[in-house]
Design goal:
This protein is mainly β. The chain contains one helix and nine strands.
Length: 97
């Protein structure tokens, strides 16, 4: 996940605000609502540490929605919402230029 995705400031992305990633045996993943995923997806993690009041994951991340057609990600249904479970290896750090 060390890759960086540079995207124009004017490129429209679907924004996902997620409290924290899913930790599955030490492997970080994120669950995205499949109905909302588009070509460009921006992910913000909102968890604030109580110890210092800082975001635990301050960087913004990018997921290319076209990967859903190429890779069969795990899917999970939670209260009628279908999530694609995306491992962090398919997510890039986002920089707006």
């Amino acid at each position: 996940m060390s890759e960086i995705k540079e995207l124009s400031r004017t490129t429209v992305c679907t924004l996902f605000k997620i409290r924290a990633p899913i930790w599955n045996g030490g492997k970080k993943m994120v669950g995205l609502n499949m109905q909302r995923i588009t070509k460009h997806n921006e992910i913000w993690f909102t968890y604030v540490r109580k110890s210092d009041g800082e975001l635990s994951i301050p960087d913004k991340y990018y997921f290319d929605g076209d990967l859903l057609k190429e890779i069969d990600f795990e899917k999970q249904a939670i209260q009628g919402t279908y999530l694609a479970i995306i491992p962090f290896e398919h997510i890039k750090r986002l920089e707006r230029v």
